[in-house]
Amino acid sequence: MTPVELALVPMQICPVAPPGAQQYADQLTGYVLWAVLALFVVGVVVSIGGIVGGRILSMPHASKAGVVGLFVVFIAAVLYTVVPSMVGSITGAGCV
User: Fold this and answer.
1) Cβ-count burial of 47 within 10 angstroms (0-12 exposed, 13-18 middle, 19+ buried)?
2) Are 66 and 50 in contact (CB under 8 A)?
3) Residue 2: per-residue pLDDT
4) How many domains are contained in the chain?
5) pLDDT for 12-66, tens place per residue?
6) Residue 25 forms part of a structural domain
7) DSSP 8-state symbol, 17
8) Dihedral (CA of 50, 54, 59, 64) sign
9) Whole domain around residue 55: which residue ranges?
10) In the prediction, which pLDDT does 28 show?
11) CB neighbourhood size of 11 (10 A)
């Protein structure tokens, strides 16, 4: 390759965590992922509580809100599994 061609080839810059920091980054990522899963469980429990409470107390709006809440949690759970792979395929290996 000529020097002009070498100048036109973009350099790949791959970010790397400082020594010893990857362990803490992985730990923090794990905490966030488990917290999101816990929020899914809380959303399902609250939605089911809204449905049951709405039926017992004859409050149809509460029951409808509970059903909508279940659908929202389901859609969020599907997106939780699909979006990271989409972002990973768009960004590639993380090199710029």
Assistant:
1) buried
2) yes
3) 64
4) 1
5) 677 777 888 888 988 998 999 899 999 999 999 999 999 999 999 999 999 999 9
6) no
7) P
8) positive
9) 48-90
10) 92
11) 7
